[in-house]
Amino acid sequence: MDKFTRLTAPAAPLNLANVDTDKIIPARFLKTIKRSGLGKSLFADMRYNADGSENPSFVLNQPKYRQAQILVAGDNFGCGSSREHAPWALLDFGIRCVIAPSFADIFHGNCFKNGILPIVLPADVCEQLMDDAAQGTNARLTIDLEKQVVVRPDGEEIHFEVDAFRKHCLLNGLDDIGLTLEHAAAIDAYEAKTPSWKPAINGV
Known about the structure:
- By secondary structure, the chain is of the alpha/beta class.
- The chain has helices spanning 21-24, 44-47, 85-93, 105-113, 123-133, 164-172, 176-181, 184-193, and strands at residues 6-9, 11-14, 70-73, 97-100, 117-120, 141-144, 149-151, 157-159.
- The protein has a 4-stranded antiparallel sheet with strand order 1-6-7-8.
- Helix 4 (105-113) links the parallel strand 4 and strand 5.
- The termini are far apart.
């Protein structure tokens, strides 16, 4: 998992509440267990018309937001089913941080496990950040995880809270496998001193 330390990037405003995981990645795209390749299907029902052409009014299809790495969204983002494909699709598109007034619990946890930082801020602050994001690539946001601040284009710093353990994992690029491998030496030492178990053959 890639480390998340400090990110300065364009932010895309998605001023919608209750964006569920089926909107983030529709169920018809869940046939794969690969984490790559899902970015093209992110928000598919909103990004594309019935004939497969791009919907030019959707925010991520607009030239100034095609390289967005931050998404500023409405309340209760990621509600609905618990599919982990939702953060996979966001990450594959290039989104590393989502800012919203609230998140569905399972989606919130899945973001951390996949290298995405979900930031909870008051609704009025999110509205200010959406106004910033509406200015496009000329008004980038900075996310400093170490300091736990969002820096607006005018330099104002907005503090956010994050669980200490999850912060540690993001700063060090540790997913569940990475956390286990941190104890590789202790695991190897235990296995070295533990007799190997062998199945009995003919009762011996």
